[in-house]
Amino acid sequence: MICTAGDEVALTPQMFEMEMRKRDLDVTAFWSIIMPNDYVMLPGFDVDDDALAKRKQRDAKLRVRSIAEKILEHKWERDVVKGKFPKIKSRIIYPLFVKWGVTPSWWKVSDACIGCGRCSRVCPVENIDLRKGRPEWHNNCLSCTACYQICPVNAISYGAFTRGKGQYFCGLDPLES
């Protein structure tokens, strides 16, 4: 299993392994790849500055190559960045977020919206439709923030939590997507 994160994965590998065991599947290796942070949905969280994001991208490319070599050589290992307080983050904060945070009701669009539809096109679960030129979220939202990140005029918000925060375009040009 390979998981990506802005800084750390906490207990994600263990949680994944438990789910796989329920299906009688074994997990032989875990790796994490640190990527530029794009999490903006809670106070105190924001995207990385440009210099840090570029460094993380450069390091991630090297990490991917290293992991690929290990996979080709069948060198299974458990090499992840758990970070600080992984139990609190995975066993307390995560379930609360899933219960109250993974919902379309927090997503809003301001009058700055230009009706470009990028938010709808980038949604990985096709959860956003345009109605009268404005995004409308349905009930399958994963709270992945792709719609927020890609908006070229920053018209999409997650309640007040994203006010004044940056966007991470993941190498995409929001004007061309």
Notes on the protein architecture:
It is a single chain. With 177 residues, the protein is α/β, with parallel strands linked by helices. The chain folds into two domains: 2-89, no CATH class; 104-158, Alpha-Beta Plaits. 33% of the residues lie in helices and 14% in strands. Strand 1, helix 1 and strand 2 form a beta-alpha-beta unit. The mean pLDDT is 93.
Radius of gyration: 18 Å
Low-confidence stretches: none
Number of structurally distinct domains: 2
Number of helices: 5
Shape: globular
User: How many individual β-strands?
Assistant: 7
Secondary-structure content class = alpha/beta
Strand content: 5-15%
Alpha-carbon distance between the two ends: 29 Å
SSE string, helices as H and strands as E: EHEHEHEHEEHE
Average pLDDT figure: 93
Task: Give the % helix.
Answer: 25-40%
Strand order of the largest sheet: 1-2-3
Largest sheet: 3 strands, parallel
Structure, briefly:
The chain has 177 residues and is α/β, with parallel strands linked by helices. It has helices at 12-22, 50-72, 86-100, 118-122, 146-150; strands at residues 2-5, 30-34, 78-79, 107-109, 128-131, 134-137, 156-158.
List the defining traits of the structure above.
globular; two-stranded antiparallel ribbon; 177 residues; Alpha-Beta Plaits; 2 domains; alpha/beta
List the helices and strands and how they pair.
Blueprint: E1 2-5, H1 12-22, E2 30-34, H2 50-72, E3 78-79, H3 86-100, E4 107-109, H4 118-122, E5 128-131, E6 134-137, H5 146-150, E7 156-158
